[in-house]
Amino acid sequence: MRGKKSSGFLIVVALLLTVLVALIALGLLGIRKGSYASSRAAVSTVQARALARSGLNDIWVKLGKDPFFPTGIGDEQDVFSYQEEVKDDADRAVGSYFVKVNRKYRQSHQVILLESTGRVGGLDADSTTFTIYAELSIKSDDFGFKVWEEGTIPKL
Amino acid sequence: MGAIAYTLRQAGSVKANVKNLDQFNEVTHALTLIKADIKAALTVPTDREIVDNELTITRVNPALTFLDRTSESDGSDSPFAAEDQISVRYYVEEGVLRRGVTLPDNSVTSIPLLKVEHLTVERPTAQEIDVTLLTKNSRVEKARKIRVAILK
Fold first, then answer.
1. Mutate which of A36, A57, A148 to disrupt the B interface (most B C-beta within 10 Å)?
2. Alpha-helix runs per DSSP H in B40-97
3. Do B66 and A113 count as a contact with CB atoms less than 8 A apart?
4. Phi first, then psi: what are they for A49, rounded to 5°?
5. Cα–Cα distance between B75 and A110 in angstroms, integer?
6. What integer pLDDT is reported at residue A5 of this predicted model?
7. How far from B122 is each of B31, B45, B48, B125, CA to CA, in Å?
């Protein structure tokens, strides 16, 4: 009789311990879920920033090779934009950049206003974005970025 | 008991990793800020101008819009004139990396960024600049470097 009572007590203790461990484990899982989410968000922000920088490097090269880029657009049109997808070595879409070009001050101040928005994921992805605003001097002896503001709200 | 010990070990591991991640994020944030300032810089120090534990650049005041800087529409005023510029100086003071901003009226503001042992600036090539932050905690010393291409 005494042995049966004792084993019953042990079963109750074991059950309580199991519940306790399960609760602790669930709590830890909850903490980790938040950590994973914030890590993912941090990675996406870095990727979006890199894509936005790629967009500005892209337009810098394009304008360096052809000061009248894009050809085929009349001088009366000040603002235009383009978007390009960025793929990795395995041809998977990593993200894209959306570049907006304002040529309003090209003649008067020899400056082009630029804005590049990096977007993580495919072209239609509704994902993390990061925008950089820049002003590019197009003087032949001084071709370079004069203003570079990261993490701005799109303003062009 | 083994399961509880394992769970507690995991909790300790998570706590330590979160602390390390926070420290890494602090350094990364400071380096990203420095990189953004260098990208925006009109002047960066040449190899000869580099000063130990210091980085000084000039850039257009980001508080001013393009139209704030150009009152004349005929292009007679430069949008990048001296009165539109600020000086940004990163320096280490009493073991803390600080970012000081000097406005055209010579007023200075300075904010602390993080504890560092040393700030190193190098120019490996004319088109690149390296910035290294050396941090140290109770046991480990870590150096983190960024390289910035200067598109000028």
1. A148
2. 66-69
3. yes
4. -65, -45
5. 8
6. 64
7. 14, 9, 10, 9
